[in-house]
Amino acid sequence: MHNWRMEDIDWHRFDRAKAAPEVVPLIKAAALVERNGREYATYLCRVFAADPELCEAVRNWAEEEVRHGEALGEWARYADPSWDFHAARARFNAGYSPPLDSASSIRGSRTGELIARCVVETGTSSYYTALADACQEPVLRQICRKIAADEFRHYKLFYDHMRRYQAQERIGSARRMLIAFGRAGESEDDELAYAYYCANESPAVPYDRGRFSTAYFAGAMRYYRFPHVRRGVGMTLKAIGLPAHGRLSELAARAAWWWLDRRRVRVGANG
User: Fold this and answer.
1) Sign of the four-CA dihedral 120, 121, 125, 126
2) Which end of the chain, N or C, is more open, meaning fewer C-beta atoms within 10 Å of its C-beta?
3) Number of Cβ within a 10 Å radius of residue 90
4) Tens digit of pLDDT for each residue in 6-37?
5) Which DSSP string corresponds to 101-156?
6) Residue of 100 and 254 predicted with greater confidence
């Protein structure tokens, strides 16, 4: 069951003066990506066709993702009334199609598929938490907090089912780690870069993956602080069967923070 609706957002509290111009392009791009939840649900329900309980949960998950996209898109229209969400979404869907045609998991196992989903939900939960902590505009802060809470709950959904499949498939720890790190690396694939392009540039401007990937990450990375990274690292380690807290987790979080700091310098983000 959905735990919030569009009508639950306090749209009347929108304050244009507090809508930071640099965050608007990021929200536009996020709206396009989140709105595509049903495509991923179709793929997951093919992979888990013999598991009606999980497929039902996945369909509910997809509707919540769609709602995230609608809420973010609506906020972007408040911030920029000239923006056409539906036109941007049509461009995005026409030009980008995720590689989800397989009837079996592209991760090599059902456990691996669910680990990858945990990594995605970790990233989105951390990102929207970072945005909520940083932004001053009250409606966006409210939306981001609601989405972050949903994404954390989605992580638990996929994590619980992953443990069930891991008990059957017994994927080795090295393989689980490779899947998790590989999926984290895919955050820099075409999806986010192309969404940023479609959301913020005229069709007359040629698409340049490197340029728009850098633009997106330069904007997004500025909002992270160490507690966001530590929490995300802990959730990722938990998904691959390692302790979420303790010395290993702390060292991994410090290493991730160092990498993020170096990356922010390279892309020109302000930390």
Assistant:
1) negative
2) N
3) 12
4) 999 999 999 999 999 999 999 999 999 999 88
5) --SS-TTSSHHHHHHHHHHHHHHHHHHHHHHHHH---HHHHHHHHHHHHHHHHHHH
6) 254
Query: How many Å is the maximal CA-CA distance in the chain?
Result: 54
DSSP calls for 189-246? SHHHHHHHHHHHS-TTSPP-HHHHHHHHHHHHGGG--HHHHHHHHHHHHHHTTS-SSS
What domains sit in the chain, N to C, each tagged with a CATH number? 19-223 (1.10.620.20)
Query: Any idea how long the chain is?
Result: 271
pTM summary value: 0.93
Distance, in Å, from the CA atom of 7 to the CA atom of 171, rounded to the nearest integer, reads 43
Residues 3 and 150 sit within 8 Å (Cβ to Cβ): yes
Q: For residues 226 and 254, what is the distance between their CA atoms, to the nearest angstrom?
A: 8
Per residue in 189-244, pLDDT (tens digit) is 688 999 999 999 999 999 999 999 999 999 999 999 999 999 999 999 999 999 99
Q: How far is CA 229 from CA 114, 153, 178, 233, in A?
A: 21, 18, 19, 6
